[in-house]
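Q: Predict the bound structure with adenosine monophosphate.
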Amino acid sequence: MRTLPPGSTIGILGGGQLGRMLSVAAAQLGYRCHVYAPNANSVAAEVAAEFTCAQDDDVAALTRFAESCDVVTFEFENVPVGPLHEIRDCAPLHPPIAALDIAQNRIAEKVFARDHGGTTAPFAEVSDRATLDIAIAEVGTPAILKTIRMGYDGKGQSRIRRGDDLEDHWQAVAGKPCVAEGFVTFSHEFSVILVRGQDGEVRFWNTPHNVHEDGILAISTTPAPDAILAQQDAARALAARMAEAMDYVGVLTCEFFATEAGPVFNEMAPRVHNSGHWTIEGAVTSQFENHIRAICGLPLGDTGLAAKRVEMHNLIGPQADEWQALLADGANHLHLYGKGETRPGRKMGHVTKTYF
Ligand code: AMP
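A: Predicted complex:
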């Protein structure tokens, strides 16, 4: 285990709210963060010691950045992998590149989960208009068409109902390579959030019950209902096997559907995750702090609950304008991400409610 002393510099690829919250957690432990992001108005850079504003494939800029860091991590899983191979010798990278390779490709991700004993939705690859017909015949309707790469928060997705004209859906995904997924009938959605240390120790946070609206996470609540808890062990075991197979270091999140036949794996995020934001006030050690601990080779912190019940509500678009009313409720912990422009569907902040 390579322990980085306080005062060391942590490089963060990506400049959004996850990088912002990682940077705050790192600062609390005495580390400096250097954010690397392509947009000048990065909300992570605002709270970091250093900022490089450059494109993700600018190898010269990436090399200078990595040489100034003692360890590099990422808060965004669509970082191009090719340039990361080039900076490998400059500083250790956690989580590993293998995790990005898998998470950036919805098909590779499902195959990986299946290879480790998981169940996924039925799926078929769609590489062109002709294979869309074949894929839908195979997985049936209703179905969801998702771009294989670069999809998040319901973007790059089209929901297919029985009898729909498939041409419309092909247009909706702009003719990009896709995966067609059969629609899973589920009672609940939940996520397994774990942290794995450099010595292979794995700790899990309480399982949150996640409610999505329009493909975007709206609410996470823990403790989760019994229907989820009954499936927790199987889901955790799968996530831990996947983490071990990747020799993973840091926080890993796997999203599941709770179905009559047990947990169905949906996708993984090789990073801190929105469904773990409640851990800032609701757990003894937050996902952000434990990610920093893991990548810096420190002992992992206690992931136990710090309240009887915790609820996290995302503030999407204009919901964040209610900040004054939200502050008036003593159970609320308000987080605003400092994003200048409110746009519909944009994650502007979140509120965590702790009940004792
Ligand atoms: P994703 O981007 O894959 O996380 O999808 C966003 C949300 O769409 C999920 O959290 C589910 O609510 C829903 N969803 C995605 N895939 C499926 C599926 N195969 N069956 C049913 N619902 C799905």
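A: The chain has a mean pLDDT of 96.
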